[in-house]
Amino acid sequence: MARHVFLTGPPGIGKTTLIQKASEVLKSSGVPVDGFYTEEVRQGGKRIGFDVVTLSGLRGPLSRIGSGSPSGKQECQVGQYMVDLAAFEHLALPVLNAGSSSSPGPRVCIIDEIGKMELFSQPFIEAVRQILSIPGTVVLGTIPVRKGKPLALVEEVRNRSDVRVFSVTKENRNHLLPDVVACVQSGWQ
Asked: What is the pLDDT of residue 105?
């Protein structure tokens, strides 16, 4: 039976919006939820990058259009976007690691997303693998559609027997919320 739930679909289809709505429904029904999501950053109507936002409201850069690494560390680039690995790890790792130490008991952890930018971080990869194996923790996350060279961790997650993957489309995105929430709740209980 599926314990973890992942959404997949093309960029801009509504995966993050669905994750945010599911998170609110779960919280309002008393389920402990934490984690992070990614959000587009726009300037003058043009996308200039992405931020990582924790469910507790902390925000920092994941990536920006540019030619230099924001933190001066090793350059990690996806297309035109430079990934700020230090800022990402500073925000994402504590919420992922919280389930293995400080907060005993069942919880739902949001991971939006396990994608190319995030996978530059070896500690993130290790934290995702660990959190997927913690009893009582249910992951609600997003993974990219298969395209080009497979991403090892994404395929590992997609092929796990305890993972259910929902494909988000324009046709179904406004109707998936109850199914996603029910699947997460059944994995949590």
From this structure: 65
Query: For helices 177-188 and 15-28, what crossing angle results, to 10°?
Result: 50
pTM: predicted TM-score of the whole model, two decimal places = 0.90
pLDDT along the chain (189 residues), means of 10: 91 93 94 93 92 94 76 72 94 83 72 95 96 92 90 94 95 94 83
pLDDT of residue 70: 52
**What value does the CA radius of gyration of the chain take, rounded to a whole number of Å?**
16
Q: Any idea what DSSP says for residue 172?
A: T
Cα maximum dimension of the chain? 47
Q: What sign for the dihedral angle of Cα 63, 74, 6, 166? A: positive
Q: CA 181 to CA 66: how far, in whole Å?
A: 38
pLDDT for 147 equals: 83
Q: Which long-range contacts (CB under 8 A, 24 or more apart) does 99-107 make?
A: 99/34, 99/131, 99/134, 99/137, 100/130, 100/131, 100/134, 103/32, 105/32, 105/136, 106/32, 106/136, 106/137, 106/138, 106/188, 106/189, 107/31, 107/32, 107/33, 107/34, 107/136, 107/137, 107/138
